[in-house]
Design goal:
The chain has one domain: Orthogonal Bundle (MetI-like fold), CATH 1.10.3720. Strand 1 and strand 2 form a beta hairpin. The chain contains 13 helices and two strands; from the N terminus they run αββαααααααααααα. By secondary structure, the protein is mostly helical. The two termini are 19 Å apart. The longest helix is centred in the N-terminal third of the chain and has 32 residues. Helix 10 packs antiparallel against helix 13.
């Protein structure tokens, strides 16, 4: 039976939600409306004159080879970050779900990285991957030296992409770990014990019992991780590579910043923002639809 809270006065519920509504309007609806308006206009770099251009910004966006390249780069980046962070989060959750001494400490240490700000995470990985002083960078440099190459992600585009993927995935592992651990603990022990008595052990039990029961969690995390990689990694990329060298790590969200802030193209940058907003709404709708099917 559904329980509902009854308020004695009609104005009290409105008063309680007013702060959240104000924050949403000021920090989401108003900027979104401004972006939509600017996407139909073209301004000079100094903002002194504005011309209504209709859908020209969107047409130029679709015809722009650099935007298509950035979109393809974003797909590779999102897939790599999502797969890596989800795989590591699942592995850590499986081990943390075992009966181990000090597992509470392990869980706490695995959750900590999620509290690190993206820019600070980038600084940590800059120090780790530095070719001269970095703990990982020096090792990679020695390994690549055997093949006649050097490690320096500041000048090598492929290495730069690998660096931002590692930093972004590391930041998200803790989030995935929390949900995977909760999903594992929600599986009835009777189910796993029955599978064990039937002779299903190790990988076979995980593949046939545990993994199917974790599918709702995996679908949810897949959408969240793709959204994170596409839109919430700007701070990490900007702090580590600024989208470089060249455009090798310029994802769509970095290109929005470059075109709008650095190049002064507010109209084109706003059109890109609107496209990204539509993608976020589509991903969110897909997530709710997937959960609706699971409930049915």
């Amino acid at each position: 039976m559904e329980r509902r809270t009854i308020f004695p006065q009609r104005g009290l519920p409105a008063l309680l939600v007013a702060p959240q509504l104000a924050v949403t309007i000021v920090f989401f609806f108003w900027p979104a409306a401004q972006a939509i308006r600017l996407s139909f206009e073209q301004q000079d770099p100094f903002g002194l004159s504005t011309v209504f251009v209709g859908l020209d910004n969107y047409a130029a966006l679709l015809a722009d080879a650099s935007w298509r390249a950035s979109a393809a780069r974003t797909l590779v980046f999102c897939a790599s970050v999502s797969v890596l962070s989800m795989a590591l989060g699942l592995v850590f959750a499986v081990f943390a779900d075992q009966e181990l001494r000090g597992r509470a400490i392990y869980r706490m240490l695995l959750i900590w990285p999620y509290a690190v700000a993206p820019a600070l995470a980038a600084v940590l990985w800059i120090l780790l991957l530095h070719p001269q002083i970095g703990l990982l960078g020096r090792g990679l440099d020695h390994v690549l030296a055997w093949f006649g190459a050097r490690w320096d992600y500041k000048i090598d585009g492929a290495q730069a992409m690998l660096a931002v993927i590692l930093a972004s995935a590391w930041k998200q592992v803790s989030y995935n770990f929390i949900f995977f651990l909760a999903g594992l603990q929600s599986i009835p022990r009777a189910v796993t014990e029955a599978a064990r008595m039937d002779g299903a052990k190790g990988w076979r039990r995980f593949r046939t019992i545990t993994l199917p029961l974790l599918m709702p969690t995996m679908v949810f995390l897949l959408v969240v991780n793709v959204t994170y990689a596409a839109f919430d990694t700007f701070g990490t990329i900007q702090a580590m590579t600024q989208g470089g060298p060249g455009t090798s790590t310029e994802t769509l969200v970095v290109k929005v910043y470059r075109d709008g802030h650095d190049n002064g193209d507010l109209g084109g940058s706003s059109a890109q923002s609107v496209v990204l907003m539509v993608l976020v709404i589509a991903l969110t709708a897909a997530q709710f639809r997937a959960f609706g099917r699971e409930r049915d």
